[in-house]
């Protein structure tokens, strides 16, 4: 579930997802306005920022800024600013939260198997 903000007839949506790009160790955040993708950021950052420029029906231009505080990527706080004024703040639910734990489990298991070697593993593995 993404963080959604209704503002002057526009829907601003901030979402997060654990993707393969950073080996599932850093989430990717996206900003969508009226369902249209406008900005994405990812990587091991504590304060990722999403930015966009919105033109209103009257021709006025607004600067949209969504700043997240993401320590471990679990329910980061998000503050949506429009022209420097805080419009909404809340938490973003990041999808696929188990992916980093699965990757870490696979890496640790592989490391243990390589450290022990095939002889020790065969000793405890039943014969086929």
Write up this protein.
- The protein is an alpha+beta fold and 128 residues long.
- The protein has two domains: 3-95; 96-127.
- Helix content is 20%, strand content 46%.
- The chain contains two helices and nine strands.
- The chain has helices spanning 99-116, 118-124; strands at 3-7, 10-18, 27-33, 36-42, 49-55, 61-69, 77-82, 85-91, 94-95.
- Strands 1, 2, 3, 4 and 9 form a five-stranded mixed beta sheet that branches. The protein has a four-stranded antiparallel beta sheet with strand order 5-6-7-8, with no helix packed on it.
- Strand 7 and strand 8 (85-91) form a beta hairpin.
- The mean pLDDT is 88.
What ranges have pLDDT less than 50 throughout 5 or more consecutive residues? none
Could you state the order of secondary-structure elements as H and E?
EEEEEEEEEHH
Strand elements, count: 9
Q: What is the 3D form?
A: rod-shaped
The largest sheet, given as strand count, sense and whether it forms a barrel, is:
5 strands, mixed
Return the average pLDDT rounded to an integer: 88
Q: Give the count of structural domains.
A: 2
- Computed over alpha carbons, the radius of gyration is 21 Å
Structural class: alpha+beta
Report helical residue fraction: 10-25%
Strand fraction: over 45%
Q: What is the rounded distance between the termini? A: 46 Å
Number of helices: 2
Transmembrane segments: 97-118
Protein name: Thioredoxin family protein
Keywords: Membrane, Transmembrane, Transmembrane helix
